[in-house]
Amino acid sequence: MERNGKCIFPFYYRNGKFYDCVKFNAKHKWCSLNETYQGYWKYCSEEDFAKCVFPFWYRRMIYWECTEDGDAFGKEWCSLTQNYNKDKVWKYCN
């Protein structure tokens, strides 16, 4: 584990591609410090978590802010890439 360093997103770990901090085999969320995980990692701090990407494309619209569209619970969310239709990675907005 490293104390310093910058999270790299997306990063590859095992058979997955990750756009945000993960919680595999640990008590707290962590991230890789390399594009392909090579044993260098750190616990995520508030600044490390993935940020919304604006604008993003969802279905046939372009969004410039968080949206409730398509969420069964009516919670606002955003894409973590510019093309949600292709990448399908997202998070709830605060």
Short description, anyone?
By secondary structure, this protein is mainly beta. Helix content is 4%, strand content 26%. The protein has a two-stranded antiparallel sheet. It has a two-stranded antiparallel ribbon with strand order 3-4. A two-stranded antiparallel ribbon has the order 5-6.
Q: What is the succession of H and E elements?
A: EEEEEEEHE
How many distinct helices? Answer: 1
Q: Report strand %.
A: 25-35%
Query: Per the principal axes of the C-alpha atoms, what is the gross shape?
Result: elongated
- Helical amount: under 10%
Mean pLDDT: 94
Oligomer: single chain
Q: Could you give a short account of the major beta sheet?
A: 2 strands, antiparallel
Main β-sheet, spatial strand arrangement: 1-2
Terminal CA distance:
29 Å
Output the structural class.
mainly beta
Uncertain spans: none
Cα Rg: 14 Å
How many beta-strand runs?
8
Organism: Ceratotherium simum simum
Protein name: Binder of sperm protein homolog 1
Subcellular location: Secreted
Keywords: Disulfide bond, Fertilization, Repeat, Secreted
Q: Can you characterise this structure?
A:
Its main location: secreted. Pfam families: fn2. Belongs to the seminal plasma protein family. With about 90 residues, this protein is mainly beta. The protein has one helix at about 85, and strands at about 10-15, 15-20, 30, 40-45, 55-60, 60-65, 75-80, 90. It contains 1 helix and 8 strands. The protein has a two-stranded antiparallel ribbon. The mean pLDDT is about 95.
